[in-house]
């Protein structure tokens, strides 16, 4: 793949209740090793239910240092791993092998490697009786180091691990902790503490049984645009500075992390950290299920969330909206994929399989109508990262283009159409149109099969078409926001990440020609819907700081990617307990959060301070106290 193209993102690298910690009441089951062992393995079942379980494995190398490592074992039953993180999986029948990910190949003497997985089973869930390291039993002789240039056979799992360019130096550690378990040779005593459970929910529920939002007691928080600014009802500039939290878009059909942490506590923490808007990825498929009154069981730990017991995914979303209002947070709904699939964002377009363009529009109309009287839900991101390269997809048409046609794959037309249908229901909600991936150079068109005829950038990051074919919403043009995405070299080592790159070179090479001209020429506001990554002490961190400073200088609206720790190519703001914050990453982000002169974070609400009066304030109080408008055209 050309460096000008974006590689597949592995943001949903850990899914479906994959918890890298011991939930209260869960016994850890450990496999002790013999005295002459060359490795020590800890196998911990962190959660278990009737048909599945999650487990974590750590292996301590008691022998010589290894360039690459591979851990093997044989299940005693019919366990089948469905998702795995922090490793590369091969499973044939009961035989399992997990090799190191590219970013954690070295396993020094006395060093520890850790990974985890989710698996299905029937009957009993017996603990594996023996493990190998690089093909040698942990109780045997020294394993042989796998040569660095040896390819370890693997079957790619449904989840992926971070893609790290080989020519990008990566620090040994990052600011985001990965799940680890301390090896021990003692089998803990099983206690009587209740095990977290998943409450069964009927596959189909009568639509009248769902909760219906009652709306706000006031409707004074709707936002509009004025040139390149987003403004409140009084015309005063505001600054949307938030975070992404995924899960509703995935097979779990609910926020990730609710398998471990309490929703209310998480919302309070988010608000007190100064994040005034949450971008919520969701799938068209899930919205259509809600519309039809069909609900699949959400992955929620009711031990940690007793108040969510028996609720459908829609009722949980409604509770999230209520909590958002309570803590002064606003909500953006983002259709992330057509299908409810942890890898659904790989699909380039808004239609896929049985999901048609018309169903995409109808899903948007339904969810807009549901929340049209509640200004907590303040913005709609029409479709996440439409992409695809035109030069090699001419026959299939599986690429998003941006022109003046009404073709089925013309993203500009689709975003325009969806926005108009949304605004016909709620003319006060903001609508966001992201970019695509490629745009033809002067003199070329989307019919060209020559890749040199196109400008390439990140998925969702190419808004060059706005200059030639701007989105036209007629009388509702003042609700339109353009939304690029931008990432660093640890996602893909693009050509503009050459030695010595900095904020100025990024501005010239990528930001201005692809999207910042929209702000600079006062066409419309910009909202950077996704940006973020690992703190590697190198090129990726250099990019993050450059974009952070750029956002702050121009008060660009943004939602950081991501709250979730289980984003494979970026990590998250939270640790794997879904409660501890990565303080180094948060410190990098904090200057881009809207705050007053006294350091209080500003809500996008006129009456409810963000996180309470101790940490936050309101738009009304912010301007009454003479704080400066967050604008720098």
UniProtKB/TrEMBL annotation:
What SUPFAM superfamilies has UniProt attached to this entry? (Trans)glycosidases, Carbohydrate-binding domain
Q: Where is this region: Disordered?
A: 171-217
Cross-referenced InterPro entries: CBD2, CBM2/CBM3_carb-bd_dom_sf, CBM2_carb-bd_dom_sf, GH, Glyco_hydro_5, Glyco_hydro_5_CS
Catalysed reaction(s) here are: Endohydrolysis of (1->4)-beta-D-glucosidic linkages in cellulose, lichenin and cereal beta-D-glucans
As recorded in UniProt, its EC number(s) are: 3.2.1.4
Bias regions of kind Low complexity — which residues? 171-214
Question: Which class of enzymes does this protein belong to?
Answer: hydrolase
Top-rank lineage group of the source organism: Bacteria
Q: Does the keyword Protein biosynthesis apply?
A: no
The keyword Lyase is annotated on this UniProt entry: no
Q: Any idea where the CBM2 domain is? A: 32-141
What keywords are annotated for this sequence in UniProt?
Carbohydrate metabolism, Cellulose degradation, Glycosidase, Hydrolase, Polysaccharide degradation, Signal
SMART domains named in the record: CBD_II (SM00637)
Where is the secretion signal located? 1-30
| Similarity section | Belongs to the glycosyl hydrolase 5 (cellulase A) family.
Q: What is this protein called?
A: Endoglucanase
According to its UniProt entry, this protein's organism is: Herpetosiphon gulosus
Its lineage opens with: Bacteria, Bacillati, Chloroflexota, Chloroflexia, Herpetosiphonales
């Amino acid at each position: 793949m050309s460096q000008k193209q974006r590689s597949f993102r592995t943001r949903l690298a850990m899914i479906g209740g994959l918890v890298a910690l011991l939930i209260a009441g869960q016994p850890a089951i450990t496999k002790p090793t013999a005295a002459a062992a060359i490795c020590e393995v800890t196998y911990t079942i962190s959660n278990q239910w009737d048909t599945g379980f999650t487990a974590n494995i750590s292996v301590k190398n008691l022998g010589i240092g290894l360039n690459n490592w591979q851990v093997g074992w044989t299940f005693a039953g019919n366990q089948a791993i469905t998702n795995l993180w922090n490793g590369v999986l091969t499973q044939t029948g009961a035989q399992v092998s997990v090799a190191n990910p590219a970013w954690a190949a070295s396993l020094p003497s006395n060093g520890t490697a850790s990974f985890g997985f989710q698996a299905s089973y029937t009957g009993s869930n017996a603990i594996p009786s023996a493990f190998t390291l690089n093909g040698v039993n942990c109780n045997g002789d020294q394993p042989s180091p796998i040569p660095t240039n040896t390819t370890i056979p693997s079957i790619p799992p449904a989840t992926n691990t971070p893609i790290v360019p080989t020519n990008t130096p990566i620090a040994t550690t990052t600011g985001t902790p990965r799940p680890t378990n301390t090896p021990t040779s003692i089998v803990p005593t099983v206690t009587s503490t209740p095990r977290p459970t998943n409450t069964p929910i009927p596959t189909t529920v009568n639509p009248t049984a769902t909760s219906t939002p009652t709306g706000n007691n006031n409707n004074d928080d709707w936002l509009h645009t004025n040139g390149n600014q987003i403004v409140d009802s009084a015309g005063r500039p505001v600054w949307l500075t938030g975070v992404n939290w995924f899960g509703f878009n995935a097979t779990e059909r609910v926020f990730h992390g609710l398998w471990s942490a309490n929703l209310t506590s998480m919302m309070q923490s988010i608000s007190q950290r100064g994040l005034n808007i949450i971008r919520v990825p969701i799938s068209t498929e899930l919205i259509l299920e809600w519309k039809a009154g069909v609900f699949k069981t959400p992955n929620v730990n009711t031990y940690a969330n007793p108040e969510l017991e028996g609720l459908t995914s829609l009722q949980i979303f409604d509770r999230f909206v209520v909590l958002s209002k309570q803590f002064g947070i606003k909500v953006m709904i983002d259709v992330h994929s057509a299908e409810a699939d942890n890898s659904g964002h790989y699909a380039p377009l808004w239609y896929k399989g049985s999901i048609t363009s018309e169903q995409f529009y109808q899903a948007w109309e339904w969810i807009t109508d549901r929340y049209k009287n509640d200004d907590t839900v303040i913005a709609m991101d029409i479709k996440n990262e439409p992409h695809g390269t035109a030069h090699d997809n001419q026959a299939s048409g599986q690429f998003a283009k941006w022109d003046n046609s009404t073709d089925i794959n013309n993203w500009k037309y689709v975003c325009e159409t969806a926005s108009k249908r949304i605004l016909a229901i709620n003319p006060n909600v903001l609508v966001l149109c992201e970019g695509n991936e490629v745009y033809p150079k002067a003199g070329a068109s989307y019919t060209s099969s020559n890749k040199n005829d196109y400008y390439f950038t990140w998925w969702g990051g190419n808004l060059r078409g706005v200059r030639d074919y701007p989105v036209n919403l007629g009388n509702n043009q003042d609700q339109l926001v353009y939304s690029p995405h931008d990432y660093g070299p640890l996602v893909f080592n693009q050509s503009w990440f050459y030695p010595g790159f900095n904020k100025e070179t990024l501005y010239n090479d990528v930001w201005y020609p692809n999207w910042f001209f929209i702000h600079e020429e006062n066409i419309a506001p910009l909202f950077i819907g996704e940006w973020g990554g690992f703190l590697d002490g190198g090129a990726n961190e250099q990019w993050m700081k450059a974009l952070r400073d750029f956002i702050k200088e121009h008060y660009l609206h943004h939602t950081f990617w991501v709250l979730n720790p289980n984003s494979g190519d970026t990590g998250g703001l939270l640790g794997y307990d879904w409660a501890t914050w990565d303080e180094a990453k948060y410190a990098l982000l904090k200057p881009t959060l809207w705050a007053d002169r006294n350091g209080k974070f500003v809500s996008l609400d006129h009456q409810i301070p963000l996180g309470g009066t101790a940490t936050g304030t309101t738009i009304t109080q912010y301007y009454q106290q003479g704080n400066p408008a967050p604008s720098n055209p």
